[in-house]
């Protein structure tokens, strides 16, 4: 007989998002169940189903995913589409089959069309062409959204899908080839300061605009939505304001106290011109973010300096 106690499984607990959700749960007295990669390969369907049967979680945060910045997405399209489709298909199906009462699926703001009106509302989904540098990842995430909706309609499975904007924070990927812009620039400015380099290379024109949300705010929103949202409609999680990549670079230069110049490398892709989420829906439920961008970057930089030898 299954226990009636709540058992929370965080899939992807070593990643930026999963580790923040675990921190948030622990701080509210919930000890999540996790599975190390060596113990469970989420791309293997039979292994995932067996794991769910053995552990009987009641709630699932699906934060496991193949993620990366513009260059990683653009250069490894097969890995991005295969791993994301496999992981989410296996976890959502096994969760439903084993009797999980609620699942939260993490999508991404890149599921919206490249030229969607700004700020982007949830209704923009499937309303236009995707940004080509990340369409493989976006198509996989859209399939995950549709899977959650289909399992809700056909089986009454309480699966919700949340769409975070660009994220950053402690535990991020700082690898210059595969990371997103914010951790990449933290590393570049830090290393340029140490070597007294004359300039730092910033990819693209510096004109694209992005919105950045601290991952601890995201984790807070996920736990809030797990408790307060039970609908098939997707829901955006954003910070509410965007800045240009040039402005972001200037801010990170300031935080890292680097004295050199910025050099824009227009041979590198800009990606989508602007990505700002409309967050009216989550705000109306009573949630809003609390961590300012400068404050968040300062904390992330401190974490990086502390951890750089282990990265
Ligand atoms: O963060 P990022 O890699 O991803 O790049 P996207 C954002 C912008 O920053 C682009 C510029 O215009 C980059 O050209 N940029 C400047 C840099 N310098 C750098 C640098 O050193 N490294 C990186 N990585 N970018 C991703 C998607 O898009 O966003 C994913 O590919 C996902 O699928 C993620 O949706 C949230 O914001 O363009």
Summarize the structure.
By secondary structure, the chain is of the alpha/beta class. Helix content is 43%, strand content 14%.
Describe the structure.
The protein has a five-stranded parallel beta sheet, sandwiched between helices. The protein has a three-stranded mixed beta sheet with strand order 10-7-12. Helix 6 packs across helix 10. The chain has a domain of 207 residues: NAD(P)-binding Rossmann-like Domain (Rossmann fold, 3-Layer(aba) Sandwich), CATH 3.40.50.720. Strand 3, helix 5 and strand 4 form a beta-alpha-beta unit. With 311 residues, it is an alpha/beta fold. The site of guanosine-5'-diphosphate-beta-L-fucopyranose has 25 residues, from helix 3, helix 6 and strand 6.
Q: Descriptors for this entry?
A:
Rossmann fold; globular; 12 strands; binds guanosine-5'-diphosphate-beta-L-fucopyranose; alpha/beta; 3-stranded mixed sheet; 14% strand; 10 helices; 311 residues
Residues in helix, %:
40-55%
Average pLDDT rating = 97
Task: Tell me the series of helices and strands, N- to C-terminal.
Answer: EHHEHHEHEEHEEEHEEHEEHH
Could you say what the CATH topology of one domain is called?
Rossmann fold
Main beta sheet: 5 strands, parallel
CATH architecture of one domain: 3-Layer(aba) Sandwich
What hetero molecules are in the model?
A: guanosine-5'-diphosphate-beta-L-fucopyranose
Give me the secondary-structure category: alpha/beta
Order of strands in the sheet with most strands: 1-2-3-4-9
**Spatial gap, N to C terminus:** 44 Å
CATH superfamily of one domain: NAD(P)-binding Rossmann-like Domain
Detail the poorly predicted runs: none
